[in-house]
Design a protein that fits this description.
Blueprint: E1 16-24, H1 29-32, E2 36-45, E3 49-58, E4 64-65, E5 68-72, E6 78-84, E7 87-91, E8 94-98, E9 105-106, E10 111-119, E11 130-132, E12 135-138, E13 192-194, E14 197-199, E15 209-212, H2 233-241, E16 246-252, H3 253-257, H4 269-284, E17 288-295, H5 322-334, E18 341-343, H6 357-366, H7 381-390, E19 397-400, H8 402-405, E20 423-430, H9 438-449, E21 454-460, H10 467-479, E22 482-485, H11 509-521
Parallel strand pairs: 15-16, 15-22, 16-17, 17-18, 18-19, 19-20, 20-21, 21-22
Antiparallel strand pairs: 1-2, 1-12, 2-3, 3-10, 4-9, 5-8, 5-11, 6-10, 7-8, 11-12, 13-14
């Protein structure tokens, strides 16, 4: 699904952490109650600017109302913009971040993380003391400033066009850090393919039912941050409250590979860390993470072109040469974690670019010279599967069909060779697609689902209601087919199917259908 292009920035990835465990003393509500707290100050520095993250934790037994953290810089660090997940302000060298209106109370044992971007020149020494609600926090260790990130890989590419952005009211906290894992020992099950089923390590069938979490595919390349709205523990808990067991995470080739057209603070290792943090947090919360290559490189201006840009700023009919590098890197990152699923390309549409459906399927599988209507080097699905397996990753791999993943008619006949035997089909279905009737599902999808696992990576409808997805879900349940709703974002339904009206999980009229259904079947 294509997404809107107006969002608010999210925090950079964490590069270094310094903690100060602090006791509140003196006057004030928090001190009077004897509350203990800790403040973690972390930064990600790119030379003439940095992202500051301030995490405050209530280590006591009494809630802290209307919390506010204060600290001072010794250099010329200057606040840029409004920050996120709190109200940021600066007076001279003194910085204050106050609780956002939507989360003013810090419960006992709870924590909150706020972030903001700063510019500077010269040195960037970290603050050495903090206050909470105006009360000095004594005994703080001196945090160490984070090192500059290592150079990102770059590619020769035209600069991306500037994108206009409008401020979003949605708070945007940083990706929550979690265990780096890599052993499949988290709560989400290790998955593999057995016949036409996804099964766990004990051979029990797993049917994935959940949501898409759009944002990481477009925020970074447009220069605004990492995600559209929060991807922290609270937002993950909201998804789980719907009884979801899977989350599909769309990502961006340019940002992951660290191409020169992306702002360095949102590219390369910074971006990869943000994605890893979110993926691991989902996994550890018991949600199967599906990494989806949503936007990829390639200059395409033919039929149904989404943009006239070589960079990863829209959907392209097929992945370009850089996608092989992308999947080799992703596979290397997650190869020891079979709980993570790979979706090789969001919505292929080679059928709009080449002549005839047979040639389109050949292009889909083989790429290269099999794609005469696409004027860039295409990486076919076989090439991408090879890239994943050559990296040593045996993770389950999803392959979307043609016609924006709505056509699976020749999927089995063109199925790539996979030494791991862990391929599954990805299908997308909306009420406006060609294959949007049960007769089509029965004639084309059901026979495939009888032989390989089918995951409906996106379900949705453009009428702000849920009667269509109700039919899809009922059909999929009977066929033991997995499905995920598009999308866990707070957009107006005119911009695309949106499941929620806020990141606490309040459903839209469309989202209510998915929420009710998940509660009944999961």
């Amino acid at each position: 699904m294509s997404v809107r292009t107006t969002t608010l920035a999210l925090v950079s990835a964490l590069a270094a952490t310094a903690a100060a465990t602090l006791a509140l003393t003196g006057a004030g509500t928090a001190a009077a109650a004897g509350v203990q707290c800790s403040v973690d100050y972390t930064t990600n520095d790119w030379g003439n600017g940095f992202t500051a993250n301030v995490k405050v934790t209530n280590a006591g037994t009494t809630a802290i109302d209307n919390w506010s953290v204060g600290y001072s810089y010794t250099g010329n660090q200057t606040l840029s913009g409004t920050g996120w997940n709190g109200t940021w302000s600066q007076s001279g060298k003194n910085v204050t971040v106050a609780a956002p209106a939507w989360a003013g109370t810090l419960a006992a044992g709870g924590s909150a993380t706020a972030g903001a971007n700063f510019s500077y020149s010269g040195s960037n020494a970290a603050p050495t003391s903090f206050t909470v609600n105006g009360v000095a926090c004594n005994g703080a260790a001196s945090p160490s400033p984070s090192p500059s990130p290592s150079p990102s890989p770059s590619a020769s590419a035209s600069p991306s066009p500037s994108a206009s952005a409008s401020a979003s009211a949605s708070p945007s906290p940083s990706p929550s850090a979690s265990s780096s894992g890599g052993t499949g020992g988290g709560k989400a099950p290790a998955l593999h393919v057995s016949g036409n089923q996804l099964v766990d390590a004990n051979g029990k069938q797993v049917v994935l039912r959940g949501v898409n979490r759009s944002g990481m595919e477009f925020m970074c390349v447009q220069g605004y941050g990492f995600s559209d709205g929060p991807v922290d523990a609270a937002s993950i808990a909201a998804i789980k409250s719907w009884k979801a067991n899977a989350v599909r995470v769309p990502v961006n080739e340019d940002c992951w590979n660290g191409y020169a057209n992306v702002k360095p603070e949102y590219a390369g290792e910074n971006y990869r860390t943000a994605v890893k943090n979110f993926v691991y947090a989902l996994r550890d919360a018991g949600l199967t993470p599906i990494i989806d290559l949503h936007w990829t490189q390639g200059l395409y201006t033919g039929n149904s072109s989404g943009c006239s840009d070589v960079n990863s700023t829209c959907q392209k009919p097929m992945p370009g040469a850089g996608a092989a590098t992308f999947w080799s890197s992703v596979a290397t990152t997650f190869k020891n974690d079979p709980a993570v699923v790979f979706d090789l390309l969001n919505e292929p549409y080679a059928d709009r670019a080449v002549s005839g459906i047979d040639q389109a399927w050949n292009c889909w599988r083989d790429g290269g010279s099999a794609c005469p209507g696409i004027n860039y080097q295409v990486s076919g699905m076989q090439t991408l599967v090879n890239s994943v397996r050559a990296a040593g990753a045996n993770n389950v791999v999803l392959l979307g069909g043609l016609a924006y993943s709505n056509d699976l008619g020749q999927w089995l006949a063109h199925k790539p060779t996979d030494p791991a035997g862990n391929l599954a089909a990805s299908w997308h279905v909306y009420n406006f697609n060609t294959c949007a009737s049960q007769s089509c599902w029965n004639s084309t999808v059901a026979p495939l689902a009888a032989q390989v696992p089918v995951v409906v990576g996106e379900i949705g409808e453009n009428d702000c209601a849920h009667s269509f997805i109700d039919q899809v879900m009922s059909w999929a349940d009977a066929a033991k087919v997995s499905y995920l709703g598009w999308t866990w974002n707070t957009w107006d339904c005119g911009q695309g199917p949106s499941l929620i009206s806020d990141f606490n999980g309040t459903p839209t009229a469309f989202g209510q259908g998915l929420k009710n259904h998940l509660a009944a079947v999961n």
